[in-house]
Amino acid sequence: MTDNPKTHPASNAEKDPDDWTTGDEPMTGAQASYLKTLSDEAGEEYDETLTKAEASKRIDALQEEPGRGR
């Protein structure tokens, strides 16, 4: 008997972006907006060509910078 993943919604909430099946698609509008904001605040270049997975990793990295809470 297999366990239904929908009954455990948080079990895969932290899936590695490298494992995303749609990770190679262009980043979402929400990702683009947030990444632009974080990049501007950090004084770093914003790259609009990132994929979903790359954008997720970049967002995580910018959030880890000093003075930037989660």
Keywords:
mainly alpha; 2 helices
Quick summary of this structure?
The protein has 70 residues and is mainly alpha-helical. It has helices at residues 29-42, 52-63.
Give the SSE layout.
Blueprint lengths: L28 H14 L9 H12 L7
Helix pairs in contact: 1-2
Structure description:
By secondary structure, this protein is mainly α. It is built from 2 helices and no strands. α1 runs parallel beside α2. It starts with about 30 loop residues before the first helix and ends in a 7-residue tail after the last helix. The model has no long low-confidence stretch (mean pLDDT about 85).
* Apparent shape: globular
Low-confidence stretches: none
Helix content: 25-40%
Average predicted local confidence, pLDDT: 85
* SSE-based structural type: mainly alpha
Approximate strand percentage: under 5%
Number of helices: 2
Radius of gyration over C-alpha positions, nearest whole angstrom? 15 Å
In whole angstroms, how far apart are the ends?
A: 38 Å
Query: What pattern of helices and strands is seen along the backbone?
Result: HH
Number of beta-strand segments: 0
The major sheet is characterized as: none
